[in-house]
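pasting for ref. prot 1 ->
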Amino acid sequence: MLQNDRLLHAAAPLRPQIDPAHPYAARPPHVPAKAKNVIVIFCSGACSQLDTFDYKPELIRRHGQPMPGAGDLVTFQGAQGNLTRSPWEFKPRGECGKMVSDLVPNLGELADDMCFVHSLTGKTNTHGPGENFMSTGYTLDGFPSMGAWVTWALGSENQELPAYVAIPDPRGTPQSSVNNWGSGFLPAAYQGTDFNATNPLRNLELPSGVKRSTDVATRRFLQQLNARHLERYPGDTELAARMSSYALAARMQLSVPEVTDLSSEPDHILSLYGANDRENTLKASFARNCILARRLVEKGVRFVQLFNGAYQTGGEGVSNWDGHKQLHAQYSKHGPVLDQPAAGLLKDLKQRGLLKETLVVWCTEFGRMP
């Protein structure tokens, strides 16, 4: 289609040269880049920008007053209320003096290492489509996620692990679930593989009674059958993805247990992330996911999507950032779960020299009305 339009064709990005048999082979970028890997920290449930990183002094001055132009607004639910300031104080952080909320003090300390984008807008105030929009650029299902695009274009530095890993929150998956890490219309090989520190990949171990030699022979025979079938249907990306996934799964029988085993992490690293917090076990679980994210990029995994918050288990805003009437009480619980582990991840990446080559993105599906 692009070839029929010279203008579009000239402006279109170059298509990477991809060997279907080796879809994850590393490919050079079109322009020089500093970052080699990406970690996305996705706060599911629409974390309020007004209570975290977006300081609004005018909102403090107008607290309790009607919103100007409120008559032109259509609220998603409930009556239109007055303006409400954040219940958390904002303070200047770092040498740059960026105003950050007391809800996330540990992240605030790292303001000098962050770049803040306050100009993003969305196209929906519904959570599922909002997650789609943030992860894929479209509100509808069926489009490639950002991780799928990155791995399609650049491949991965490690052929023993998935190129793209999604790490769900310990409480479950986000509302739009696998759409956040799907491949859409790209070859199926570029969808994310989801597992976390609590629930590693399933079915990696051989069934009881099956010898390693038998397993190898079976996979070799299956590979021959699939290759013969692929010759008849060379455009079948689903089959090509299955073939590469079988080979990757065999390699992951050794690589995944090693990367998900956190027993080798020293106590000072566990303490940095809060992974040994016995009073806040949810924070400890998310902290272990953050350590897993670091270990994955350390091994050369190209793209890691790390979720904080799961879809409505227990009611509105209980398991994610979808706070409404109980926002203060709920965020008082969610803040500590996110803050120390995410800050620990940034500090750990920096002290290992990985922050120079890892792009860490914090995002949520949309913000909140004041």
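and prot 2 ->
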Amino acid sequence: MPSVFLASRNPILFGCGVSKQTGEKLKEFGCKKVLVVHDKGVKEAGIVDKILGYIHKAGIETVCFDKVLPDPPDYICEEAGALGVAEKVDGVVAIGGGSSLDTGKAAKVLLTNPPPISRYYLKHEDLVPDESNMKPIIVIPTTAGTGSEATPGGVITDTKNNCKQNVPCATNLGIVDPELTLGLPQSVTVTTAVDALCHCVEAYTSKEANQISDVIAKEAISLIGRNLRKVIKDGSDLKAREGVQLAATLAGLSIMGPFCNIPHEIGLMLGMIFHLPHGIACGITLPEALQYLAPAIPDRIKTVAQLLGADIPENAGSEEIGQIAYTTVRNLYDDIGMPKLKDLVKSKEELAAAVPQIMDYSPFHFSARPVNAEDVLAILEKAYEA
């Protein structure tokens, strides 16, 4: 087993009520005026004004950027960065779901590095942003799923090539306050929690999984298994909210080294083609992916299913393990109201037409079992029939 683990550069402050420390933490970074990045929904929920109050109480000025869009497009990131430059800010605070956090990360890069943001896509032929004089960023997630507070980069939409790109940018501090997820709509809770589940399951089933990532991933899977149904049943259950939020952060940490595999490799392009929420696009094939991987890594698939509450016979073979894992996740999805692929895409023919684009975009380097176009089609067709 490889022993490579990419330690996170992102310090994290976790716990109920910790968002009250936002202003003081900005003062510790020496900030006088910060760019606050958020979407209109978080503003309407009253969360932004609450955080602004903590910042202003510390004597720090703010300028707000509220034009964040889902799967943040490159031009929105550039607009946010340009506002920060024009206002001469010396820091960034990003509040919201993954799209807001990733927009904030991209804006941080552009405060001290010239646009366009495409110059800094994480590809060999592109530039690495100069970090020597970057301004600090604090990210404050209001959903429990993306784990962006734990990962050293932002995922944005390359509108020229209609695909997702990574921009390297670590956060200086993640402030993770489960209280901010109270009142989150059930649909958003489901979408983001399924994304978190994919992160930790994919880390644990990656061919690059290692001893450190295994410990983190298994705890994240267990937390979701114990708490997600409770959150869906009662959104005001703060203890369960805290469990899912901790799982999301741990899941983000767990992919640092193993990275993601089949569900995300399929889901990233699936979401782009059919305009699906990220967590839904990735999670929609998780049950099928586990069943597909069972012949290659039966013990790991067995562990995943058990952590999610399944009983598996001691002498079960890989086929039985795969079926139980599949059923376990499908039952979880039914209980939490996970959308079905057949309700999101018109036909199997549309899915088949998407396979070449998925294969062009996704190398499936981290899958514990080789994946070809026929395998992707079979996974999608089975998911469609579920």
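Confidence is low (pLDDT under 50) at residues 1-5.
The longest strand covers residues 153-158.
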